[in-house]
Task: structure prediction
Amino acid sequence: MNDKKNQNNGASLLGEKKTKLESQIAELQQQEQQTQKQLKTCQIKAKKANNLANCLIATEKFGKQFLTEAVEKEKNQEQPDSFWLEYFLRDKIEFSLKFAAGKEAFMELILKATERELNSLRQRLASIQSQLQHQKRKFARLQARRQGKTLLECKANNGIGCLGAYQCQNCRINYPVAESEALKGGSY
Result:
């Protein structure tokens, strides 16, 4: 009974239609789809945060320029009003200090956190896609053996064959182009 179960790659004899390997592939595909959705959402969030950061930088430049021009205009008058000049200078310094602190807090709390989340999701997606490709290759080997095909040994000494763009001659024979394209999965 164990021999039949092993030949069936983990499928129970109670009429289960999917093998354990097929279930793993389906689970990885589901994880890949969920991670891709999360990645898209995070990319949108990162783009918005980046746009806001750029707006903050532009606003800071505009604010400094406006206050600098107002101070220069007041200085250049024949009879400068020292009260207004003092007011403009105080506003310029206060604006710069408050805005710089707010911009730095935004960059640290929002922008960097979003970028870290985005990188984490990209790494998770790459890991899932790598596992998925590995499981699909194992399934393709299993299917080929079930069909009575004798598989040639990989010249790169990789147990499941060459993965990725480069394939040795034996792997090209074992896995025709149509199967190789199906094994590539999502993009990295």
